[in-house]
Design goal:
Elements (H helix, E strand, L loop, with lengths): L9 H8 L1 H22 L7 H4 L2 H18 L10 H17 L6 H29 L5 H28 L13 H24 L8 H10 L3 H13 L3 H31 L9 H34 L4 H21 L5 H16 L2 H7 L7 H8 L1 H22 L6 H16 L6 H4 L2
Helix pairs in contact: 1-7, 2-5, 2-6, 2-7, 2-8, 2-11, 2-12, 4-6, 4-16, 4-17, 5-6, 5-8, 6-16, 7-8, 7-12, 7-15, 11-12, 11-17, 11-18, 12-14, 13-14, 13-15, 13-18, 17-18
């Protein structure tokens, strides 16, 4: 089927992926500042991963279901994936705007749950859209362009609270209240999220099912919730071998990044800046700086993706080897955070992390999309998300706290050592992937 698809230009691929800018605004604000909100509302550092648990649990349920439904959706005007883009955009925008106005921990945790569920509704169809629209020879290129846009979003969104402070917004607030700088940042993020997804909806057409009569017959023959769930479970049990091999890589990769999202703010504000009082100006300034440094990994992932997009458009690449090297580089970046002596060195650390992040957001999906039936692309992209959310659930249920204390000791900065070790293990796990169709363009 893929050989009949037209090769698209850079700007056509850019338009169909532009909604990821908004999605990443949501994820970057969520990943960079929800732990800060939790601490502001009185959460203990060791309780933070548990407060995050609703997010991956929601993704575990939502993405396979959304993928299954989007595979079976078609409207001549609205398409297959675009209705899910719009629904997710509306819900995400509301949740992102309201999150920093939480007045209690349970409200903030609930806002995170709704936000993550809503973003997931939009995100999975975006992954499937690349595989829907592009021939196999452009898959790596397409996912790398998505990563380029994600990098832009990560960098800008991670710096928004700092920028709001520079523009005069208050960066401190009474105890238990989120500062205005964070509230304004989340409000801007909500606006960008909705408008960027709407841009993709308005500028991108979708291919109809190849055999419309067969498609309609399958829809009529396979109705009902229980049939849908049964088919999802059948697809899980019959997943391609490459997906299982990639699952090992994904487990270590996303355990590492969940550790960063949960603990980067408390670890770095304490270890590097010596700030622990969450209502103090010193802590809030340090937390803004952490957001700035986290933005570095987004900025570097953008440039790395830009280089990869140029290379992937010109020559065939070895996806497995590229992913292996990139993950190991990111692992060393995390480990170096423990040893730095000057704050500017955090830019170097997170630059290495950015290399890994760019690869995580592109290479696994490129490898997977070459091994999946096109008509099941949505549901398999959703199922593949299991290998993202399961490690986060394990981490949130005590995996991070148990491992970093057991292996490295009690200090919270040791979470970064754990993240680095896991990312290096993820890199070497690529050696399990042997299918040449998956590993090469």
């Amino acid at each position: 089927m893929t050989e009949h698809k037209k090769r698209l230009s850079f700007w056509q691929i850019w338009n169909m992926s532009f909604g990821f800018l908004g999605i990443q605004f949501g994820f970057a604000l969520q990943g960079g500042f929800m732990s800060r909100i939790f601490q502001t509302l009185g959460a203990d550092k060791d309780a933070i991963p548990f407060l995050w648990i609703a997010a991956p649990l929601t993704g575990l349920l939502v993405q396979p279901i959304v993928g299954y439904l989007s595979d079976r959706t078609w409207h001549p005007k609205f398409g297959r994936r675009k209705p899910f883009f719009f629904i997710g955009a509306v819900l995400s925008t509301i949740a992102l705007f309201l999150a920093p106005y939480s007045s209690a921990l349970w409200m903030a945790a609930g806002a995170l749950w709704i936000l993550d569920a809503s973003i997931n509704i939009s995100m999975e169809p975006f992954r499937a859209l690349v595989a829907d629209k592009l021939p196999d020879s452009q898959r790596s290129y397409g996912f790398v362009v998505q990563t380029l846009i994600i990098g832009v979003g990560t960098w800008i969104a991670s710096n928004l609270p700092w920028l709001m402070t520079q523009m005069g917004a208050s960066n401190t607030a009474p105890e238990g209240v989120v500062p205005d700088s964070v509230k304004f940042a989340f409000g801007i993020g909500a606006l960008v999220l909705f408008s960027s997804i709407l841009y993709t909806i308005l500028t991108t057409d979708e291919y109809p099912p190849e055999n419309m009569e067969e498609f309609e017959q399958e829809k009529k023959a396979k109705k009902g919730v229980f049939h849908g769930l049964n088919e999802i479970f059948q697809n899980i049990s019959g997943m391609p071998k490459v997906m299982k091999q990639l699952g090992v890589v994904q487990f270590f990769s996303w355990f590492a990044f969940f550790t960063m999202w949960s603990f980067a703010t408390p670890a770095i504000t304490e270890h590097v800046f010596g700030a622990t009082d969450t209502s103090s100006a010193a802590y809030n300034d340090a937390a803004d700086s952490v957001g700035n440094y986290l933005g570095t990994y987004g900025l570097v992932s953008m440039f790395y993706a830009l280089i990869l997009s140029f290379v992937a458009s010109k020559i065939k690449i070895n996806r497995k080897l590229l992913h292996l090297v990139s993950l190991i580089a990111g692992g060393f970046g995390f480990i170096l955070i423990y040893f730095i002596t000057e704050t500017w060195m955090l830019h170097l650390c997170f630059s290495l992390v950015g290399i890994a992040w760019a690869s995580i957001l592109s290479m696994p999906y490129a490898m997977l999309s070459s091994s999946v039936e096109p008509k099941k692309m949505g549901v398999y992209m959703g199922i593949f998300n299991m290998f993202i959310v399961i490690p986060q659930i394990v981490a949130a249920l005590g995996g991070v706290n148990f491992l970093y204390k057991l292996i490295f000791g009690e200090a919270v900065i040791n979470t970064m050592l754990l993240a680095g070790t896991l990312l290096i293990l993820a890199g070497f796990s690529n050696l399990f992937i042997t299918d040449p169709k998956a590993t090469h363009d």
